[in-house]
Specification:
The protein is of the alpha+beta class and about 140 residues long. The chain has two helices and seven strands.
Length: about 140
């Protein structure tokens, strides 16, 4: 069982650099960057995440890392150069048939997804980036 997640964009990858824009440059309307804001009140976020003020408008809250499957919206300012980030996880699969085969794959998937997520986040941090746009995941058995 092999599992691979790959980001492949020709444009910028790093976006929404919270707290890194001088205040004079952050005069963009909230509606332009609101697609990256969390849709909850900070006190009622359903899971633990680190939140920072939006680097563009300074009003909304954004997560410290953003992973998306869509391309970056044209109205969101992107800082830095794009690049390719790949993460791969390989697991050996027993030669099983029918329901036992499905169970083995089903049991392995959550751990593989966690490992892909961990690798992507670590590679983003090493490159000094905080967002992935256009994330694609390919699963091969």
């Amino acid at each position: 069982l092999g599992f691979m997640a790959e980001l492949d964009t020709s444009g910028p990858v790093s976006g929404i650099m919270p707290g890194r824009m001088p205040g004079s440059e952050a005069k963009i309307l909230q509606s332009e960057c609101s697609v990256c804001h969390i849709p909850y009140l900070e006190s009622s976020v359903p899971f633990p995440i680190k939140l920072v003020k939006c680097g563009q408008c300074g009003r909304g809250k954004v997560p410290d890392i953003l992973l998306t499957t869509v391309e970056p919206p044209p109205m969101v300012e992107i800082l830095g150069q794009g690049g390719l980030i790949q993460a791969r996880v390989l697991r050996l699969k027993k030669d099983l048939k029918g329901e036992n085969n499905a169970r083995e794959v089903s049991d392995a998937l959550p751990f593989m997804e966690y490992e892909i997520h961990r690798q992507l986040v670590n590679k983003l941090k090493v490159k000094g980036m905080n967002a992935i746009f256009g994330l694609t995941v390919d699963l091969s058995m």
